[in-house]
Amino acid sequence: MVMMITGLLLAGSPAQADNPIDMDRFVADPSAHVFDGRMYIYATDDSDNSGTYWDSKDWRSYSSADGVTWTDHGQVFDLTGFSWANSLAWAPAAAQRNGFYYLYLPTDRNKIGVARSTSPTSGFSDVRGTPLIDTSRDANTGTEPIDPMTFIDDDGQAYLYFGSSRQPKVVRLNADMMSTSGPIMNVTVNGAPGQGFAEAPWMYKRNGLYYFSFSTGWPGQIQYATAPSPLGPFTYRGVALDYVNVNTNHSSILQFNNKWYMVYANKALAGGGSFRRSIAVDYLHYNGDGSIKTVVQTAV
Ligand code: FUB
Predict the structure, then answer these.
(1) Where is this region: Disordered (predicted)?
(2) Ligand 1 geometric centre to CA of 294 (Å)
(3) Is-contact 71 60, C-beta < 8 A?
(4) I need a surface site. Which of 27, 69, 188, 232 has the fewest CB within 10 A?
(5) Cβ–Cβ under 8 Å, residues 264 and 248
(6) Taking the model in full, what pTM does it have?
């Protein structure tokens, strides 16, 4: 199913989505990526959960050529695609490599699977057949490996980040993007105020500096830290996105068409709440020293 969602383009104002990007459905946990000049957002489907817990069963995708008008590509994968998964389709991530697209999908609060396709929005399958990360098999997963995020560095090395009970983790991925290399390592963030990392890790590189952002809790801010290496240790730099009006805060930061964006979730859609979230896209700006100006939330 493909459906066009029209954004609002005010005369004289820069192009910006008319938030939320989907006016008809609750979606959350945006993982935003640029593939071949188009922005894609992968999301948890909050419209198919019970409304009282994050017990979603599938993931959805959207794309845009301009960050304003969004195409709804519908369901992109569901729990039945993993023979080994039972429940809890939580925050997804995506990557493009080798002529394939990869989705990294947490389930059951204790496993992360990977699905592959030649299309960014359909045809994904569990080529591997077993979880990529599994608490019952792997060392140092932490008790709750969730919220995967993939990052491919300029030298071609790919990394999988995930969150696990207040301890961010990272492991190298092989070039096939469906197997890991070496141990699962802890990510260190020095100097973060309060309780620090809770969930929703995100990684990107700007001007040679690695930016690691994350949510601090329930509710949480999106704080960020930087390092000269994707493995850290990271030094706390500030708040990229302040508290939102739902109990979880999960975001992506990316550059698209020479602008920087913060993609996040709140309860702006009518009937919304902490289990019925919707996705917003807002501009993100930097100071001259590379620090992030806390994003102005245009839709609450
Ligand atoms: O959607 C379920 C969970 O809520 C995600 O895994 C967390 O990041 C939080 O947004």
Answers:
(1) 116-146
(2) 22
(3) no
(4) 188
(5) no
(6) 0.95
